[in-house]
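TOKENISED FOLD:
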Amino acid sequence: MIDLGLSKLAIIGVVALIVIGPEKLPRVARMAGTLYGRAQRYLHEVKTEVSREIELDELRNLKKEVQDAAQSIKSDVERSILEAKDDIDAAWRGHEASHEVHATVGDLERKAKDFRRKKLVRNSAVPGWYKKRHGGKTQIMSGAARVRKFRPGLKSTSSFF
């Protein structure tokens, strides 16, 4: 800007005192100061707006870069999933072609009957006399009782709850 030193300001002040006069000089100086302040605020606002626009432009560019990177990652993941799916389908088709086995209705009925029989055996109650004869558990014992019974160093008593 304009380089005003103390000597130049003094010369301007003397000329203004002569031209304007001593009565109007304080009012003119106040008005000049007000205009100078407004100009400074205006320049500050312009600088702030320009810097805000620059930052906004940088953010837009960054957003675009991030979206491009995300899109490329998404496409890579989708491509790798499709490749894996194709490999699995190819392996499955190859497995089916080599081992074509057709289950008959009789086979399915036999498997269902075996499954029901095994499930019945797992879930059915076993009589007490059978448990005593073959050494099975005859009474239910809680977890705390089992811990007490099998805890090392304690003399176990066979009391049931």
Q: What stands out?
A: The two ends are 100 Å apart (CA to CA). The chain has a mean pLDDT of 82. The chain is about 75% helix and 0% strand. The chain has two domains: 6-87, 105-150.
